Each structure stands twice: as structure tokens, then as C-alpha cells.
Protein: 4-nitrophenyl phosphatase
Organism: Galdieria sulphuraria
Amino acid sequence: MSRFAFQTHRLSYSSVSHLFLKKKTCVSLCKRRCCHNNSGFALRGIHMDVTTSSKVRKLSQPQHLLDTVQIFIFDCDGVIWKGDSLIAGAKELITQLKDLGKRVYFITNNSTKSRASYLKKFRSLGLDNVDAEEILSSSYAAAAYLTSIHFQSKGKKVYVIGEKGIEEELEKHHIAYLGGESDKDKVPDMRPGGKVVQDSQVGAVVVGFDRYINYYKIQYAQLCLSQNSECLFIATNLDSVTHLTDAQEWAGNGAMVGAIRGCTQKEPIVVGKPSPLLINDVIQKHQLEPYQICMVGDRLDTDVLFGKNNGLQTVLSLSGVTTIEKVLSDKNKILPDYYIQSIADLLSKNI
């Protein structure tokens, strides 16, 4: 898997501001010619969206995206489902996009499931038109990253803070590991002279979401990263909160990563969103330009940033953790191209 990133290009506001003396204008450089309705227009090589009342537009005409996008990438938690509840319109939209010949991928920072396990969840929610190869999980990203650096050939092991999803993906990639679910009930010996003894062959610590994280796991990871030469610190994601149920937000993997970062003073390699690792794989596979891909998600700091950093079109769904007030706040610097209330707003009424 390639480890390069596409850069988002911007044209300075001052270079075209004389065209819009009385309007707030968002100007982004792109590689296409495009057509717009009365709220925007196009010059050769420059995509310009003009708005007089807000920083970002509500998507009112999904046909524009359908005309320019070949691949749609959807976040799962907060966009396709919340907890164990399917968000209205999800199945219909997936069917519609595939009938139009569009490619669809699902990307999630939740590492508790492997792609095979995620497929079972899609099926349980009635989404029988999804294939395992279309699911890009952060557990898969961790195993794929280790494979890309030829970790298997080094004879090293992975210590896992996380759940079954990471273990299953490591097994599929033939990567030796320890920890994970087998350490969920372990308690370190903290009597006088007591200590935890770590395996010196651990060459990477992978930290994913772990509902059974404990002090033993934290100490074991700390010892590996502090004492094992060139041991890698890999995080599946840095999400602050997650959707375990549809009743409330729950502390996310940022809490687990923060514990290891705090005791080692090391920064992790992040393989999930907004890292470019997964999108690079998709771009190379389909030989497309980044602007022909659209990222649809519910988080500004992962989904939208993931899209912006890699030159994708971006749509923020307000069905998850982000409110419109946060989007329009002066403190927010991460702006999607469009926002929608939910995935149902992407359904084309012209079909």
C-alpha cells in the first residue's frame, strides 16, 4: 500500500476578491470544469461556491454530486447507523448509487470488528447489497499498514490493546500478536518487588477501541514502547467519542490512545481517518482523480478533514455528532463542501 498523500490546493481569496466585493466567497482550485446553479459559477480550472449567509451550503441538489462523483465513501457510525439502528434512507441510497454505476465504500474508525464481522452487521440491519471488499475498517488499516512495511518478515509480534476486530485482521494478514481479549481480566502484581515482564519480540503496539482496557494492558504497552528497540506505536484512530448505543455518546479510542501517549510521551502512527492510507489504496485501485471521490461523514475532525486533506469532495451529515452550530462557529476551521440533515438528503428525486 502506498504511503503518499494528495494535497488540497487553494487559490487565495485576494486574487479573485475584486469579482465579489459584496459577497463572502469560498474559492477552491480543482481539476475539472463544472456547472452550477445560481448560487455559484465556474471559471476554467476554478470551482467557486458563492454564499451570502453562511460558510457552507446545504446540499439541495444531489444531482450535482451524482454528475461529478464516481466513488462515494460513507462513514458508518452516525451516517449509515447509530448504535444498532439503521438511519432512514441508507439502503435506498446504496441501491440507487449502485444502479447508477457508482462505486460505494464504507469506512469506519471503529476497530472492534473486522471487515468480515462488519459485513454481518450490515446484513443484520438489512443491508444485503454490501460486499466485504467495500468495507474499510481501521482494524484492517492497522494490519494493512504493518503489511506495507513488511512487518511479517522481521519476526516480530504485535501487542494489541483492542478487541476481536484487530485480532481477526492480524490473523488474516499472518501477523503474530498477543494481548487483546486474552488480557482483559489480567491484573498486574503490584506488591513489593512485583512487576510486569514484557515480550522483547514485540515490535509494535496497536491501540484500538477497547471496552476492557485495564492497568495491566497500559503497563504492558508502556514497557514495550519504552524498552523494546524501535517498537512502533500505532493507533487505529483518535476519535474522542463513539456511538455504542443510540442513546448517548461514549468515550472513544482517543481515551485509550491518550493513556499510552501520556505514559510514554510518544506520538502514534494513526492509520484510520484522517490518515491517507486507506484513500490512497482506493485511488490507485480505480485510477481516479481525488475530486471524483466524495467523503460523507458526521465528524469534522476525522471525516471532513480526511476528505479535505486528500482532495476529495466532502459532505457533512448532521445525523451524528456534529451540529450546524459547530460547523458555523468562528472557532471551526474545517469546512465541508456541503452539509445534509441525513443520508436521505442524497437520494436523487430525478431517478
Notes: The domain at 59-135+276-346 is CATH 3.40.50.1000 (Rossmann fold). Confidence is low (pLDDT under 50) at residues 1-53. Residues 162 and 210 are 4 Å apart (CA to CA).
